[in-house]
Write a structure and sequence with these properties.
The longest helix has 46 residues, at 18-63. The protein has a three-stranded antiparallel beta sheet with strand order 1-2-5. Strands 3-4 form a two-stranded antiparallel sheet. It contains two helices and five strands. It has one domain. The chain has helices at 18-63, 70-79, and strands spanning 94-99, 118-123, 129-130, 139-140, 146-150. Strand 3 and strand 4 form a beta hairpin. 33% of the residues lie in helices and 12% in strands. Helix 1 (18-63) packs across helix 2. The radius of gyration is 29 Å and the shape is elongated.
């Protein structure tokens, strides 16, 4: 049998370490791409979570007591699941508005309680998403997320029929 002998174009010169350098370049590119894919998945999760936060905020505002202070804070806390579902999203970033039949703001929801027909929950334009891709770390502003729901009980329970225990007001 004949032995096959391979010669490099630079016969006689050592090429030790070339594969290490090639591996370093290829693995750096691979891991940047991998982190980029993970960050895009994080971005899609964040967009879906922001949509759910507005839906949950509108639902809670439709059934929880109307108020200007602590009641709104309770709705905002509940909308963000009482914690940080999205990194950097604070309860204050959830905007709750009470609307009349024409879609206009009712102003003071307590004084104009009977005029409330809809509630709107949206994400404040101050919220920004932080990318984590290496060499591409920047802040992105999300698209406007908003949910409008029909005002339901607004925290007021109807009087109980005769013979049934009184229900009183609803608390959230």
């Amino acid at each position: 049998m004949k032995k096959l002998i391979f010669f490099s174009a630079r016969s006689g010169k050592k090429q030790s370490g070339v594969t290490t350098v090639e591996m370093a370049i290829v693995s750096a590119l691979f891991f940047m791409l991998l982190i980029g894919v993970i960050d895009i998945a994080r971005l899609l999760f964040t967009w879906n979570a922001l949509d759910e936060v507005t839906r949950r905020g509108a639902r809670m505002a439709a059934v929880c007591p109307v108020g200007n202070g602590n009641e709104i804070k309770n709705i905002q806390d509940g909308a963000v699941f009482y914690g940080n579902i999205v990194f950097g999203l604070n309860p204050e970033d959830v905007v709750i508005e009470y609307l009349d039949k024409t879609g206009g703001d009712v102003g003071d929801p307590v004084a104009n309680f009977t005029n409330i027909a809809f509630v709107r929950s949206s994400i404040s334009p101050n919220f920004q998403y932080q990318m984590l891709i290496p060499f591409f770390q920047q802040l992105l502003s999300p698209p406007p997320f908003s949910t409008i729901a029909i005002a339901e009980s607004l925290g007021v329970a109807p009087p109980a029929p005769a013979g049934f225990p009184a229900t009183g007001d609803v608390s959230c």
